[in-house]
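Late entry, nicotinamide-adenine-dinucleotide complex.
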Amino acid sequence: MTHRVTLLPGDGIGPEVAEAMKQCVAATGVAIEWDEQPVGEFAIKKYGTPLPDHVLEAIRKSKVAIKGPIVTPIGKGFRSVNVALRQALDLFACVRPCRSFEGAKSFKGVDLVIFRENTEDLYAGIEFEKGSPEVAQVIELCNKLQPRKIKDDAAVSIKPISVSASRRIVKFAFEYALKHGRKKVTAVHKANIMKFSDGLFLRTAGEVAKEYEGRVAFEDVIVDNCCMQLVQRPQNFDVLVLPNLYGDIISDLCAGLIGGLGLAPGANIGDGIALFEPVHGSAPKYTGLNKVNPAATILSASLMLDYLGETKAAQRLEQAVRDVIKEGKAVTYDLKADRNDPTAVGTREMAEAVCSLLRGKRPA
Ligand code: NAD
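Prediction complete; structure with ligand written out below:
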């Protein structure tokens, strides 16, 4: 059976890691018909916008997509294409597995999965610019409604957290835990300070947890304490469920625990629709240098194959990546003890080593 998949190569290092991923998927023998769609910088050049409507339509039609990273200008310019994709397609669950890699600078025994709520929180993009007429109205209203005063030279971002979105992500995490034999779900929050928004997330998580009592354990932890515990005893965590912003930050922290951003894959899942992508960004300084680690994108493709029901191919692909990393020869600079090690290979060569293993040959 041939699967139709929308491929958004992205920009920066995106096209290089996407090409590496495509070759590795081909080497698994699974037939994919790629529907390639430019986004980000390339779409701006061609269509005048980083995320044309026809790209969203293409993903709605194929129902499965994989993407490379896309640049988001910092503090100015267009809003994040990544966030827009998640919101437009209602990809409410961001799933990021983190498991130690032999041969990488990984903590031993890390095996956790992050479930990040993907549609609301401070990430929703509801912001009011300093000095704008809108922010003046928001400040006036807020100052009237509650005792703490917002300064009139402030910018304001809004943090919506709803029962429905919290319930949906927590339930998704528990269902995953049940299906995959996971023992414990930990809700991460700052409900001691944000009593209404994070408090609501925590209360909702507690209610959902009751439906799984006796089957999956539940605990909660304050986000700052969670960071400290993750760095000291990451093995204590199993499934983590978090609002959007904490999920974003903790994902990078956990990527660091297992050997860096080059090794962290991800999936954005909605109702009957999924978009796979590495956790890392477009690392613009490495664009076109054949330098960065393609593993995060290849491992995202392994998650995609699993989602498509190609479970064996998904496992073989993940194992081939793990074997190449364990051997430590055909790996990129970030996986070498010394980042300036001249024996580090490029993006293409690391992908070729994975392909060789999949085809039953030892990497050259
Ligand atoms: P980044 O993840 O692009 O890079 C940070 C650093 O991590 C790099 O300088 C590099 O040292 C390392 N790194 C990242 N990917 C690597 C790889 N595959 N192999 C080896 N090392 C790797 O983060 P940034 O510099 O903060 O962001 C750059 C741009 O990417 C920004 O515009 C940001 O908004 C965007 N971004 C996009 C996504 C996405 O598309 N989903 C995610 C995060 C950031």
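The mean pLDDT is 96. Will revisit in the morning.
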